[in-house]
Amino acid sequence: MPIRLPIFRKKVMEKLSSTEETKIMHVSDTPESVYRFLNGLIEKTEPDYIIHTGDLADNIKLERRPELKPLYVGAVRRLARVLKNSGAVLYIVPGNEDDPEVVGEFFEDSVVEPGTVVEIEGKRFALGHTWKDVVGLEADFKLYGHSFKLIERGLNGVLGVNFILLPSGETYRVKYPSGTDFDRGYKMWRGL
């Protein structure tokens, strides 16, 4: 199913779809409601790498509601299908709302601990769930999520889907669908 994009996203999508550069896609804190959007974005842009910085099923607050684990397992299973079918190299950082055993079951060797630094085509990427996991690390890019905090050289996956092109180092952000913050449970942020 093709994704429908507002006019302002078209130029970014054209660039991401047509570039010959290596594409790294970064997402974080994904409620189930965005899985279809992510699948369409992956089909359109064909990223070489996908980095998820935690809270894979962010509408299920497992940390506070452990009894929702069966729902969480089903959601992570669906997200794993989307991400694994992409053919991209995956890096998955568990977040505070994730069950590390479940994440490991579905993503195996793709799971990395918060604070891990990986090298992709000569650039260093610090990966964490929160900004505190990456702020003091030496890296060209610091990828994280969890809150709305911004840090120097940081890309926050809560604010949108980030794309990094290599070797140029250009970055682009594609907004999540409207209602994503509400689905994450951010009612205060929306003024409700």
UniProtKB/TrEMBL annotation:
Coiled coil regions in record: none
Alphabetized GO MF terms: hydrolase activity
Species of provenance: Thermococcus eurythermalis
The protein, known as: Metallophosphoesterase
InterPro entries: Calcineurin-like_PHP, Metallo-depent_PP-like
Signal peptide residues on this chain, from the entry's feature table: none
Stretches assigned to the Calcineurin-like phosphoesterase domain: 23-107
